[in-house]
Amino acid sequence: MQNDLGRKNDELFRNVVISTFRACAKRGEAAVKALVEDLRTHAHLASEHILDLEAAEIAEAQRRANALEEDAGEPSEILLWNGPSVGCLLLDRSCTGGRLRVESNALVPDVFTLKLLTDERQQPCRVAWRKQNEIGVEFLDPM
Asked: Would you say which domain of life the source belongs to (predicted)?
């Protein structure tokens, strides 16, 4: 459908240019030269606009790729002392700590056990910092 619309726009543009050219031809060579110069100017501006759109599309694609990359984390659980657990993603990890994404950090105590679902390892942790839906943790038993 996008191609059909593009073809129709191109055809309409061609018809307008041809009609305008014929009208200018009746008025003389100067009018034709002015029309050709206007068309060149508009074509140049249109190509700059297209380049701007392409740059914006590339930036948006990069932003989406970064968002997907950021969402890719290691599925984990925060084990609470009274039995239940809170699902989370381990986004970053070093030997001394990590960054977790959680639904709500209000449910997470200051000290807890992190269970990595990929290999069932458990890691005692202490909260180092809290943001909206992220928690920085210090591993109490370095990995």
From this structure: Bacteria
**What is the rounded distance in angstroms from the CA atom of residue 42 to the CA atom of residue 130?**
53
Which secondary-structure segment (H or E) carries 136?
strand 134-139
- CA angle 16/18/19 to nearest 5° reads 65
Signed CA dihedral, 66, 68, 71, 75: sign only: negative
At 5, is the pLDDT very low, low, confident or very high (cuts 50, 70, 90)? low
Q: Helices 29-71 and 2-27, interaxial angle, to 10°? A: 160
Instruction: To the nearest 10°, report the CA torsion of 131, 117, 91, 72.
Output: -120
Does 68 have pLDDT greater than 50? no
pTM for this one?
Answer: 0.50
